[in-house]
């Protein structure tokens, strides 16, 4: 009798222990992720998102903003749409955490896309077609795809009942492709309250890259600063049969020729020196371990800057892009104009650069007007967010090296950097060089598997940033 009782007690005790264990486990791992279902939902969402025409100009992001807002609201995540101008849109959604003092992380993407010429595409560029395991369409890799990764990662965390110890704020802007006047610029100027508790921004620009088969994480901490100028040559109009030695057209062409020949001095920022050092170790290119020293050798420097992607990293660049003059073959026009796209290294002074250009041209009949000038800043490469990215690499990608980088082009990041937020460009998907190049080309598409891996990594990153 005594034996039976103690046996019953044992069973009861064991059952209690089991229940307790299950309860503890449920707290630590509230609910598992159904990655197949999340991927299917993300695929549908991205396909529908691509179908909404947000080609900029004119942008018209409002319907896309409303769709994303509904998606958040359905899952009980508060979301709001802003309309900076009729038809334009920005959407924001906040996943509340339980931390009171930890700074909010912003996941930043944009809804507008660059124009696409259907004649160059194998499928209509806004079809959102899913075929052979890939989602096709403008925005799949750039803008909309990253936005879907951010959104689905937040939904996955919410559905799994994981409580992060900080808030995550989703922001999808409009007008990024044309500089952000009706997007990030408007938001950071008029809705500062929305992100007043934020400390970090994770946006586009970097990601998982490979060099000679070696995987690394490229995290953009800054970008080149755009300085867009218009050169206008003026003079007298006249018949072209007896032309004077100099006309507005010849002046402009001469000026442009001087600018094409002009090579701004090489300048190796510490960040760039470190960037090449990291890549050199991966590529086994000992020479690049110390770029400054390597470039002191004139022959090597010549060979190095012959690659445009290297050249852009070590100097300011000048690219003539628009030419305007004349209306009839036998008439000398009174004005001729060119627009040039200059990209300055972070920290360079725009006025000093314009002065240098004026000296190169040395023609006071050519006026120089500034069309756009955006000063850039460098985010610190040590931060809580960088530590989280390092931890992500450890957990998901076998400790792939994390390399701070500089983007040659610019995006919405600078608006947030200027407001003191640590802002990085890092979309956690792996792209080949060819795919990166195709971001704004014809036949842009993302593999469903890549999308899935991106969401999985983003969930992991949010958990790390959220104290898990
Ligand atoms: Zn972009």
Give me a quick take on this structure.
39% of the residues lie in helices and 24% in strands.
Give the topology, please.
Elements: H1 2-28, H2 35-51, H3 62-74, E1 79-82, E2 90-95, E3 104-110, E4 130-131, E5 134-136, H4 144-159, E6 168-173, H5 184-190, E7 198-211, E8 214-223, E9 225-234, E10 238-239, H6 248-261, H7 270-283, H8 291-295, H9 298-305, H10 308-314, E11 317-325, E12 331-332, E13 335-344, H11 350-361, E14 366-373, H12 384-396, E15 402-407, H13 413-417, E16 422-430, H14 433-437, E17 445-447, H15 448-465
Parallel strand pairs: 3-6, 3-7, 7-16, 8-15
Antiparallel strand pairs: 1-2, 2-6, 4-5, 5-17, 7-8, 9-13, 9-14, 10-12, 11-13
The structure holds zinc ion.
Give the distinct bound molecules. zinc ion
Content-based structural category: alpha+beta
Low-confidence stretches: 1-5, 21-27
Radius of gyration, in angstroms, nearest whole number: 27 Å
CATH-scheme architecture of the domain at 35-208 and 407-465: 3-Layer(aba) Sandwich
Mean pLDDT score: 93
Question: How would you describe this structure to a colleague?
Answer:
By secondary structure, this protein is an alpha+beta fold. The chain has a domain at 35-208 and 407-465: Zn peptidases (Aminopeptidase), CATH 3.40.630.10. 39% of the residues lie in helices and 24% in strands. Strands 1, 2, 3, 6, 7, 8, 15 and 16 form an 8-stranded mixed sheet that branches. A 4-stranded antiparallel sheet has the order 11-13-9-14. Strand 7 and strand 8 form a beta hairpin. The structure holds zinc ion. Zinc ion binds at residues 110, 142-143, 176, 204, 411.
């Amino acid at each position: 009798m005594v034996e039976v009782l103690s046996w019953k007690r044992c069973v009861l005790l064991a059952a209690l222990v089991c229940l307790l264990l299950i309860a503890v486990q449920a707290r630590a791992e509230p609910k598992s992720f159904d990655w197949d279902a999340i991927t299917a939902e993300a695929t549908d969402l991205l396909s529908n998102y691509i179908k909404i025409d947000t080609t900029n100009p004119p942008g018209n992001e409002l319907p896309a903003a409303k769709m994303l807002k509904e998606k958040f609201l359905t899952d009980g995540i508060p979301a709001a749409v802003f309309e900076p101008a009729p038809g334009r849109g920005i959407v924001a959604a906040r996943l509340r955490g339980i931390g009171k003092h930890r700074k909010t992380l912003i996941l930043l993407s944009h809804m507008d896309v660059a124009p696409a010429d259907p004649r160059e595409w194998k499928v209509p560029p806004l079809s959102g077609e899913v075929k052979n395991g890939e989602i096709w369409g403008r925005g799949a890799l750039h803008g909309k795809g990253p936005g879907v990764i951010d959104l689905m990662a937040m939904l996955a965390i919410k559905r799994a009942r994981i409580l992060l110890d900080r808030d995550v704020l989703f922001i999808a802007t409009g007008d990024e492709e044309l500089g952000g006047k009706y997007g990030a610029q408007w938001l950071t100027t008029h809705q500062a309250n929305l992100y007043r508790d934020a400390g970090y921004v994770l946006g586009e620009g970097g990601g998982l890259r490979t060099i000679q088969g070696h995987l690394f994480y490229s995290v953009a901490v800054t970008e080149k600063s755009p300085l867009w100028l218009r050169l206008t040559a003026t003079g007298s109009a006249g018949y072209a049969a007896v032309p004077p030695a100099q006309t507005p057209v010849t002046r402009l062409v001469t000026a442009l020729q001087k600018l094409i020949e002009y090579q701004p001095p090489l300048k190796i920022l510490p960040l760039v020196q470190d960037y090449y050092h990291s890549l050199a170790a991966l590529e086994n290119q000992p020479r690049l371990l110390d770029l400054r020293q390597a470039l002191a050798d004139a022959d090597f420097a010549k060979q190095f800057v012959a690659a445009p992607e290297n050249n852009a990293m070590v100097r300011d660049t000048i690219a003539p892009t628009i030419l305007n003059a004349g209306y009839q073959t036998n008439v000398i026009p009174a004005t001729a104009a060119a627009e040039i796209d200059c990209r300055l290294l972070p920290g360079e002074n725009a006025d000093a650069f314009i002065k240098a250009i004026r000296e190169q041209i040395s023609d006071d009949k050519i006026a120089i007007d500034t069309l756009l000038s955006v000063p850039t800043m460098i985010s610190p490469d040590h931060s809580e967010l960088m530590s989280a990215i390092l931890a992500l690499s450890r957990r998901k990608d076998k400790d792939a090296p994390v390399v701070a980088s500089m983007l040659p082009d610019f995006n919405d990041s600078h608006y947030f950097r200027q407001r003191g937020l640590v802002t990085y460009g890092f979309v956690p998907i792996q792209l080949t060089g060819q795919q990166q190049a195709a971001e704004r080309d014809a036949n842009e598409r993302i593999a469903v598997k890549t999308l899935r891996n991106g969401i999985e990594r983003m969930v992991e990153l949010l958990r790390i940033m959220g104290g898990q």
